[in-house]
Amino acid sequence: MKRTIIAGMGHYVPENVVSNHDLSKIMDTNDAWIQERTGIKERRWVSAEGEDTTSGMGTKAARKAIADAGLEPSDIDFIIFATLSPDYYFPGPGVQVQENLGIDTVGALDVRNQCSGFVYGLSVADQFIKTGMYKNVLLIGSELHSGGLDKTTRGRGVSVIFGDGAGAVVLQGTDDQTKGILTTKLHSEGKHAKELALLGPATSRWVDRIIEENDPEDMSYYPYMNGNFVFKHAVTRFQEVIHEALQDVNKGPEDIDLLIPHQANLRISQYVQAKMGLAPDKVFNNIMKYGNTAAASIPIALSEANEAGKLKKGDLLCLAAFGSGFTWGSALIQF
Ligand code: ACO
Questions:
Q1: Which residue CA neighbors atom 21 of ligand 1 most closely?
Q2: Shortest-distance Cα residue to atom 14 of ligand 1
Q3: pTM, whole model, 2 decimals?
Q4: How many CB atoms lie within 10 A of CB 232?
Q5: Are 11 and 304 in contact (CB under 8 A)?
Q6: C-alpha–C-alpha distance, residues 162 and 83, integer Å
Q7: Same domain membership, residue 163 and residue 16
Q8: Which protein residue has the closest C-alpha to ligand 1 atom 38?
Q9: How much is the average pLDDT of 304-318?
Q10: Mean pLDDT in the chain?
Q11: Do 167 and 314 sit in the same domain of this protein?
Q12: Does 145 contact ligand 1 (Cβ within 6 A)?
């Protein structure tokens, strides 16, 4: 059986920086509140006159990851695209990347697991590569949140948290059993589906009903988040699923060289780090600069950590995510 390695990484974020101070000009919020609760100082939001889209940002990150792997787009034999903010309700953005990169008619799979989407996609890619079905899988996480947020005081509990951006990796098989993905763990708990969700439009509220109910106060077009409830579940599930993966390969938290958690909230990352007894420098965070970019947060952080020289050959890398669904997952990778 092959092992799956990360052969290339890349990320792209829009140029437009939106600071907490900028937000305080359009809604009743302030830098101290946002930093104290979330650690976020600024985020990137696509500019209205710009051309960035979820698929477009994903394509830019993908080009970098493919080049980083020393490959051409034509070498990619499968595409996986994780997002909660696709360009269209359907089709998903995977096919747009296939077209943008001029790749032959390879399969393109869209993953709809929100903040856990990248870890879910990684697990799917791992199964394809281990069995030898595909050789070079392109996995992308990309989000354009800013177009769908309520940027008034009414939506401030959600809108200050989320940012735009994309990250990508190229995954390859190797016969070298000393490196690569050791294990992945995936979970879900649908009874909490509405605690972190965007409910309309949807097939349960299809177009005729939306038009009938066209109420300017209808909040179902905006993401809803039960913040305290999400926080409590996130800190528990992050720890559980990391321990589950470690146990699977007979390792402990002390073996982790770098943990890259989904960048949900700096306070969540710090809580998990402290509870697991990890030194602060063993956990990589960049939410301060980008906000929460959902499915894009892990691949952006991974690419930045790698560029910063924080990943060395032989390191044990742990990825972990929690998000809407609820869904959560983890991966352990011998670098
Ligand atoms: N600026 C200023 N005041 C605000 C803002 C804001 N942006 N947002 C809310 N407030 C006010 C509220 O209206 C409320 O005022 P009130 O007391 O007069 O009613 C007060 O601040 C406290 O609001 P809470 O929602 O109770 O604030 P809390 O301390 O719980 O912090 C937060 C909110 C940051 C969302 C917190 O619940 C949290 O961190 N939750 C975790 C969820 C999370 O991080 N999700 C990330 C996305 S999900 C994911 O990726 C898994």
A1: 157
A2: 157
A3: 0.95
A4: 11
A5: yes
A6: 13
A7: yes
A8: 227
A9: 97
A10: 95
A11: no
A12: no
